Amino acid sequence: KYFTLSVLLIYSMFLLSWIYVISENKDITFLQIFEQSAWKVFFDFLRNILCCVLLLGFVLLIFLFPPFIFIFAGGVWKLVSIILTIGNER
């Protein structure tokens, strides 16, 4: 059940990245579309996992010692912003 959902999620990310790649490049071969989409899905997935781990660590720190929220809150959101915008500047 969970394997099917994860495959479905990655497949839908792959198809959505095809739309993005095709919208940016009109004259491109199928192999190039496939290659660019695969790299985009791979790096987007890694960025999202990294953000989830960062936020989970932040939440665990807050549960251990609640005043950490005042110390780390701005920095955590800045790191998430930087991670999600890497490679998207155009």
Main attributes?
0% strand, 3 helices, 90 residues, mainly alpha
List the helices and strands and how they pair.
Blueprint lengths: L1 H23 L5 H35 L3 H18 L5
Helix pairs in contact: 1-2, 2-3
Describe this structure in words.
- By secondary structure, the protein is mostly helical.
- It has one domain (2-85).
- The protein contains three helices and no strands.
- The chain starts with a helix and ends in a 5-residue tail after the last helix.
- The mean pLDDT is 77.
Mean pLDDT: 77
Compute the CA-based radius of gyration: 17 Å
Name the poorly predicted regions.
none
Question: What's the total number of strands?
Answer: 0
Domain module count: 1
Basic shape: elongated
Tell me the strand percentage band: under 5%
Helix-strand makeup class: mainly alpha
Q: SSE order in H/E notation?
A: HHH
Share of residues in helices: over 70%
The CA-CA distance between the termini, in Å, is: 39 Å
Number of helices: 3
Main sheet, how many strands, which sense, barrel? none
Keywords: Membrane, Transmembrane, Transmembrane helix
